[in-house]
Each structure stands twice: as C-alpha cells, then as structure tokens.
C-alpha cells in the first residue's frame, strides 16, 4: 500500500524552495484594496499552468451591489478581479472549496517596520511583510496542497475549487461574488491565520456609529450646558453592560478559553471642537461581535434596546436619544457542527502530521466562511498558519514551517474528503 | 449747581443716532484674528478727531514674545495694530483706563444666523452681528462717555486712557503689549458683556491637553488590549473630582450664585482610528478655571497631582501616566477688593442712572483685567452691556439702551474718579 503521507512530505520538501520564492513574490505585491489586479493575474496564470480551469472576472452588477450581504466602501472593482481555479474531479467524490483572500490592509507607518512592509524578507524561518500572515501564507498552503497532489499523479474524485478573492478585509464582497457566480461545494477550508487551531465556528461582527448629544455652553459656565462627553460615558457604560449580558448567554465550550467570546469594542471617539466650550456632540464608532448561530438582526435589536433603556436612568436621553447607525464592514457568523465529517478528517490528518491533537475553538473574528455557510450551503472551517496577533500590525510575519505543515495537512485532507480514483 | 447727570443724559440722546451708526460701522468690520487693521485705523482716526493723543502700533519684539504671560497662536501682528488714545487730565486727579478688545471670534456657520453675521441689522432695539455683544457695544459705551464729557466742556483732572486692543480672544497679548509699552493707571474699567453686573473679581482660566494611553488590539479580542477610551473615562472622573474639591474651597459670597464657581471643562475628546481596533490613544482638551487670587502655577500643580493620583487606583496609569500639557489661551484671574474706591463710585452712579442697586458678582470667565491688575498695578473692574450667553454664538446681539446707559454711568464715574477742574 502506497504511503501517501511520506510521498506528500517528500514532494513538499522538493518544492519548498520554489514555494518560498512564490510566497515572497506574492508578499512583494502590495495588494491593498484597489491594487489586487497584478497579484490576481499572476495567480490566474499559475493556476492555468497547473492545468486548472481558470475563471477571472471583475465583479459588478445590481444582483451583487443590491445584495443584502453586500458591504464595501466602493462599487467599482475593475482593478480588483476575483480568481477561481477548478480542479475537476473524476466524479463521485465530495467537492471542496479552498478559499483565501489576497487583499491586505495598509502597511501603516513604514518607520514602524524593521524591513520594508513589502519586502518578503526571511529571518529565522519567518517571512516578513504585510499580508504574510493574513493570509498569503495560508493561500500558499492551499495552492501547494493541490500542486503536490497533481505532481504525485493523484486523481481526486471530487472537485477542488481554489478561490483567490478580493475584499475580505472590507466585509466579503469578493466571496459573495463567487457565490452569486454559482460556486459552491460540499465543504470549504479557509486558511486564515488561526495558528493551526481549528475553528468550526466563527464570530460574526458588524460596525456601528453612535451620535451622543449634548448642549453647548461656555466652559466657564459649563453648568448651563450639557456635556456630550459626560453623556457618552453613560453610553459606554450601557454598552459594557450589554456586552456582559450577551456574553453570559454564551455557554458553548468552544468559547471556554475566551475571556469575552463576543466582544463589543468601541474603537473611535470624537467630540467637541473647542477646549472652553461644552461639547454638544460626541461620535462613537465600534464593532459588535455576533455569536455563531445568532441572527444579525437580533443583535442589532439588542443594541437599539440597550440605548433606548438609557432614557429610563436619565431623562436627557428621552429627549435626546442616542442615534444608532450600522455602517461599513460586516461579517456573517459561521457555524459548522463539531461532528461534521470534514472536522473529523481534518483532526485525523492534523494528528498524523503534527503528532498531537488539534486545538478546536471558536474564532473571535469573522471570515468569509460565514457567507459560504449561510448563502452557499457550504460549511466552512477555518484553519491556517500564522497568528492574528500580528496581522494588521507592523512587522507582520509568517512561520514558513507552519505554512508547509498546513499544506501537508490540506493535501491529506483533500484525499480523504474528495476521495481518490485508483489508477 | 450744574446738574451734570441731566446734561450728560441729554447729550447722549443728541448723539445717539450717530453713535448707533458708528456701532453698525464697527460691527460691519469682520475683525477676526488677523483682520483688525481696518477697524483699528478707523478708531485711531476718530480718537484723533476727538482731540486725543493717539498711539497706534504693531506689537512685536522679544520682550513681548518671551514674556511669561504672552499667549497667542501667532507671533506676527502686522495686520493687527493696537490703538491707545489718551485724554490728558489737568493734573491732580486719578487716572483711568477704559480697555476693550476689537477682535471677535469667527462667525461660524452663516446658515445659523438670521441676518448676515456682519450686517449690524437692528431689530426691536437690538443690534445684531458678531462682536456686537463681545464687545464692540461696550467699546462704544467707553468712547461715547469721553465724547459726551468733551462735548460738555468737562475738564477732568486725571488722565483717561482709551485702549482698543487686539488678541483678547486668544489670551490677552494686545493688553500685555499696552502694559509693556508703559500704559498704566490708578484703575481700569472693561465693558465686557456682564449684563451690567459689576465684577470686581474675575475667574482666570487656562487650557490643557491630556494624552491618555492604551494598547491596541483587534476588537474581536479586545481583552488582549487596553482601551484608551475606557481609561479616559477614569481620567474624566478624576478631573470631575478635582473640580469638586477646588470648588468646595471657594467661600467668597460673590460666587454664591454660581453652581460651579471655577469649573473645569473638558471640551474636546478624540481617540482611536478604527471601529474594530482597541484605541491606543485618546486626546482630551479642556479649560481649567482659576480662582481670583489663586496662582496659576498652584492650579497647574493640582491638576498634575490629580492625574498622578490615578496611578494609586490603577497600576496601568503608573506605567502609562497621562501626559499633561498647558497650551493655547490663558487668562490671568483678577481680584479687586469690593471696598475699592472705584467700586463705591461705580455703584453710586449705577444707582443714580438705573434707579436700582447694581448686582456685584465674580465673573465666571477671564478678561484682560487680570493682566492689568497683576502686571500693571491697575485694578480692573468689569462691567458692560450685553450678555455672555449669546457671545460666540449665532445671532449675537446687543441691546442698544444698555449701551447708552453704560455710557451714562461711565461718564458720571469718570467725573467722580478723575475729578473735575472747575472752570
């Protein structure tokens, strides 16, 4: 009997050096929002060279732009094509989507980086650069898994659909467009940076903006006014209370290790214009976590109720209610049962490759997996190299060994999940 | 015996129509910071025509710019001359400064004004426009008082020094420059808008900026960070506590009617950059009231101590102390004894003109009077037409009757204070 695991490991070792160069090439592409065409064309060409059916298109049209799950600060994606490559199976097997995004968040202040943010420098086994962890490293794991199986002459029964999408960092319009284009599968893997923890459940999230009102006055007679800054402190407290109540309801053991499973974060505060005037308006912006399985509309209603309740403790809020607006990014929560067959296969292969049991948790942030699960009937599981702790920060990096271990686990998982046509 | 009061009232009535036109002309000059030359040249010409010794100059030089009380966002005043006119007395009397500023705060959004902010429209006995109350109306009272006495052939024994200064709204560099140029007197009147209350004491004030630190993290794992927004709530609370302690010490009956005699106002809050990130920095800007007779350095020290005390309740602040900076505007507190002879004279003339006793209080805001009292040995009393409630706001206006009553009171007060050389 063929020892596929040994062959896969050996093949990865052979391809490692070229694969590292490929990842460097990807990281050197500054594929921030609106700048994804160059890397996508390279990926499309590569998938084509690997013998896959390649679909590269610019998403557009009313069906997308008016879709209730469409979220993006823009409507013109001409510089940001989506790419999908299909490795057609021989038939009779389960299909698998390997989804990953190529858009990266801005590099921020280059002075805070030790190396150039788009250098792809390698130091002590880590490859540095914006997007290395989030999530070009993971994308390489997926691509390499396919490449290795093809090199070894493996013929899968089920289809493998490699998706290189845009717009994940802005709420998932790229993956939404693949769904509207008809792509779906029996399951999906998304190698977002989980530090190789397996996340069958993902927290959703959405952004809110609050306007807290006051009444202006001269600072020397501040008692003649009402400070929107003081009132906003009551609002921050009310939101902390809501966060506590919502989290006390979370009993899922997958969340046991998280101090606050579904946080509500107030990230921006801005109000008042003059040191010696009483502020008449404070704007707060934040992110509300949504539990796996929770309807986003229910979470929105709870927020609106918590703000309305402020009127009970302070008549000011009865006459000047806090204005609530949902804006900007939104990620649908995802929820795949822990007993899902892909979960079982994934954990077996993890154990085989790493020699230890995988940690199974629920993710504290949203991914495109929520859309795949909710809209495409494609249960999505999140597992990949890299850690979120350094995503979006200066000196983002990914550990190369983890990238190749993930490729090994993915290749074995694909064989088990999709099935292999014997020669 | 001549009934001077009747003569003065009669003369004011004669000059009223021309004086209203003059006030309109002044209000039509948009003398915001950096745009004061035009009105100052007109005032200088008028003082000259009235037979006064006129001194118009552009303040400059190291003595001014390096003076510990110099505060201004600019150092070039070439578009903003100061004007002083001296009516020399016959000798042997007490001298008097009539100080007022011509700089006005910006008009703000014109859409919030019923009339053009620089129209000088008159409706129902009120003259509308930016600067009408603060304080061109009061300046007219001073000028008219001199004009009327001169018209009546009154010869005062003491000098009268009419000061039309710039930069009051930015902290008093204009009045500071008159002091450095050598102008001083036995007392001063400043017709800021007190609604004709007499303020022998004035609250000083100064601006502060605080930087409250946090540690960034992704909003989905906000417990890995430290929210500068939450920390800033502790800072706001600590400042409220300091305000309470400072005000409990104020026992002066002149402050009895003010709910908070020397408020600390936090007017601006700004922090965080992204709804789904934990804010790592919040900036707070505010105004600290300084009690009459209090040293500004003592008030600064109390603020620094209150912020340092935060470390006792929360170790975060021990490692990340709140940064305190004093910036921008500053007004020195003023403190003239209620038994000062000018107080007595002023109240007598008020009673004579208005038929009721004047209200004596302490001002909730600073004026240039603090500088005159502290640096020029010139006790300054604040009393004038108009109300601060509408100063700095849209539809600022001044009641014309109050302007002319103030002129009447000032003319009588000048005769009593400076003394009259009998013909």
Automatic annotation (TrEMBL), chains A, B:
Q: Which segments does the entry list as coiled coil?
A: none
Lineage: superkingdom: Bacteria
Q: Looking at the keywords, is Hydrolase present? A: yes
Which Pfam families would you find in this protein's record? M20_dimer, Peptidase_M20
Q: For the Peptidase M20 dimerisation domain, which residue ranges apply?
A: 202-314
Per UniProt, what is one GO molecular function of this protein?
metal ion binding
Hydrolase found in the keyword field = yes
Keywords, comma-separated and alphabetical: Cobalt, Hydrolase, Metal-binding, Zinc
Question: Which cofactor is essential here?
Answer: Zn(2+); Co(2+)
Similarity remark:
Belongs to the peptidase M20A family.
Quote the protein name from its UniProt record: Peptidase
Q: Which organism is it from?
A: Brevibacillus composti
